[in-house]
Amino acid sequence: SVSAAFREYLQHLSLQDFPCGLGSWNKSRYNARRSPRGGQPGQRADPAGQEEAMPLGEESPEALMELLRDWHSPWALPPDCSPQDQHLREMAVLAPELVRGSNVFQVLRSLRIVGKGVEEVDQGLLQLQQLEELILSANQIRRITSANLPRTLKVLELCCNAVANLQDLCAQPPPELQHLGLGYNRLCGPSQDKYLTAAFWPNLVSLDLSFNNFTDLLGLVSQLSSLQKLRILVLQGNPLALIPTYRGFLVDSLPKLSVLDDIHIGPDERHQFHGLTRQPELIRSEARVVVSVGEIKGVPDPSALQQLEVGSKAPVITYSYCVMYEF
Fold first, then answer.
1. 309 vs 27, which has greater pLDDT?
2. I need a labelling partner for 272 at 20 to 30 A (CA). Which of 84, 157, 226, 296 fits?
């Protein structure tokens, strides 16, 4: 479940272990915060407002932060860690009480769990009451229930999973969601087209449906046209993208779209395809694929055979090849 993966994620960050968290390395500083007099006996401040030397066996916040940031340090995170990971670790040094126990649920705004074998998005995710970004790519999620998603979500990325039905996701979707990533899943049209409307996603700006099995271009466009805030759309990798008039029809049908399949839509292109929407007869239920064979190895090359002399009675040898494609 996501909750189990999240617990492993927190253990990996070691927010309660040196140099993070609370311990002998910073106990006087923490006790000073809790003291009603705002200080601790024996620790004074100079007139300039600077603290005296740290007690024996303790480290200053600056020294602890250096241990996190210096890549030579054994406590430093790997270079490919997310900014959120580094932010939580630094917070665990500067304000350890904020990420202690269940308090971490209140400060986490982004959660990235990628390639961890997650199958279930459970209710435990609701503890993250401030979560705005949830990345669950490259897992094994087949269905996702919107009731288990925080209402504060603005980004939901489910790329490379096994989602085949959007019904549960659209039961109570997060109302402020701006990006929905469903690329490389198992969605099939037209049964799923009806869930891609403003009735479920009124604030959607970016939608990734790439590499699924959407086939009905007219039906999908009629649903997407209700998404008045949609600016970025990715449909490449679907069968409908093989239709010759695919891009032009989308550009003309969705006038507010700015980017289609990672390619910016300019004024010239929009003018070029103007009026294509009024010609639906051009959207035929067929696709054209052109395959060019550049080279075949391991078979005789007829062009390399020596030309026969005129009038020669020698037998003529011909070659024919059959190339088969399976779609």
1. 27
2. 226
